[in-house]
Design a protein that fits this description.
It is found in: Endoplasmic reticulum membrane. Pfam families: Glyco_hydro_63 (PF03200). This is mannosyl-oligosaccharide glucosidase. 42% of the residues lie in helices and 7% in strands. By secondary structure, it is mainly α. It has a single domain, classed as Glycosyltransferase (Alpha/alpha barrel), CATH 1.50.10.10. A hairpin with a 6-residue loop joins strand 10 and strand 11.
């Protein structure tokens, strides 16, 4: 495995002879992906806890001394043939959404009071998670306090892209601000860090370690007024990334603003349960989710509004790459939406009836379509067409793991 350290401008090699990991698709994505690993293990940990512990331990063992974990693992020749060469180097300032914390908290709750051996193992695992968290929050820090920016958009490999991709975010070609600079603020990353602080604090408490640092970070990142200052647009009444959309960069005050784009990113504070259950902002998010011109379809929530300039648009100037997160339906984000609706259904007084109805309709749409496509096309797919419901992209795909969780209504509450 080649590891590039941008701070030293050098490439080093690390030998990895074998690793146990799940894969999104054995045919097309035959290597491990860190953020996919978390979703897959949400099913695996319920079926075979011991195997899930082994898989997650393998990923944590890849950590370097600073706390960085590679976002994917390309070590065998078959995987290298299926992955463009510019992704073969693993860059030490590139992060990935910490979905591994969903199953890890489940494991921690089981092992914490089991026996001394399990408790000691959990303490070792927590020490690695704590090191990773420190790296995560510091390496992805933004220009303003309590703002965060995915690294990697300014990499040379992105030169031919109409809107620079953010591979580190997991939602690769979802359009961000048009100009890439250090003043960007990425809303989903901020929500993931809040989530990570909450989970890491809980695990710290389970192993008898100090949790106040994580609680304090979580408190700041879920403070609604601070979130509004950095990511809320009062004109369009929605959340978004912050960045420069047009023109030359003169100052951060004249050219930068909250990006008005309706899609998975704009509802992320809802997805990660950061919005107060009775906040008026929840109404605007629900309105976007249920509008058929925006996110609502008969098959699940689409990733990008039909009115967006990038909707179903190819991103690479010279290649025929299919749009991935520009309108199609993704089960992982729809799972997070159902998980959030289940939470707000219980905690919201003002919107409880609306949310109950929305949960039932969305869940039925997703399940019915995935089952119909399986019988018609014979597989589980990477993504689903927002206009026809048809399966698209790679197959067979382990998005089936999310289907199982939705079917069984297993939502891994913190």
């Amino acid at each position: 495995m080649n590891i590039f350290d941008p701070s030293l401008n050098e490439i080093n090699s690390k030998e990895i002879k074998a690793m146990l990991t799940t894969t999104p698709s054995r045919i097309f994505h035959s290597h491990g992906h860190f953020w996919d690993e978390g979703f897959h293990n949400m099913v695996l940990v319920l079926w075979n806890e011991h195997m899930s512990v082994e898989l997650l331990s393998n990923w944590l063992d890849l950590m370097n001394e600073d706390g960085w974990i590679p976002r994917e693992l390309i070590i065998d020749q078959y995987s290298k043939l299926n992955v463009p060469k510019h992704y073969h180097n693993h860059i030490t300032n590139i992060a990935n959404p910490p979905t591994f914390l969903f199953p890890l908290l489940h494991i921690a709750k089981k092992l914490a009071f089991k026996d001394e051996s399990s408790s000691n193992f959990l303490k070792v695992m927590f020490s690695k998670v704590a090191r990773w968290f420190d790296w995560f929050i510091n390496s992805q820090a933004g220009y303003h306090q309590f703002s965060y920016r995915w690294r990697g958009r300014d990499h040379l490999m992105n030169k031919m892209q109409k809107n620079k991709m953010t591979m580190s975010s997991g939602i690769d070609d979802y359009p961000r601000s048009k100009i890439v600079d250090r003043y960007e603020r990425h809303l989903d990353l901020r929500c993931w860090i809040a989530f990570a602080a909450n989970i890491t604090g809980q695990i710290a408490n389970l192993v008898g370690e100090e949790r106040s640092k994580y609680d304090e970070i979580f408190k700041h990142l879920t403070e609604e007024s601070l979130l509004d200052d950095l990511h809320w647009d009062n004109k369009y009444m929605r959340f978004g990334d912050f960045g420069a959309e047009t023109g030359s960069i003169i100052s951060i005050f004249s050219s930068h603003k909250v990006v008005n784009r309706i899609g998975y990113i704009s509802i992320f504070p809802f997805l990660m349960k950061i919005i107060h259950p009775d906040s008026y902002k929840l109404k605007f998010i629900i309105d976007d989710m249920t509008n058929e011109r925006k996110l609502w379809t008969d098959y699940g929530l689409r990733s990008l509004s039909k009115s967006d300039e990038y909707y179903k648009q190819n991103n690479d100037i010279n290649a025929e790459d299919e749009p991935q997160w520009r309108g199609s339906i993704r089960l992982n984000i729809n799972y997070l939406a159902l998980r959030a609706l289940k939470y707000y259904e219980t905690h919201s007084v003002r919107y409880q009836n609306v949310i109950q109805d929305l949960y039932q309709r969305l869940r039925e749409n997703i399940l019915n379509n995935v089952i119909d496509v399986y019988y018609e096309q014979g597989n589980f797919y990477e993504r689903y067409n927002d206009e026809t419901g048809a399966g698209e992209g790679h197959y067979p795909h382990s998005s089936a793991s999310l289907f199982i969780l939705i079917l069984s209504e297993e939502y891994f509450d913190e």
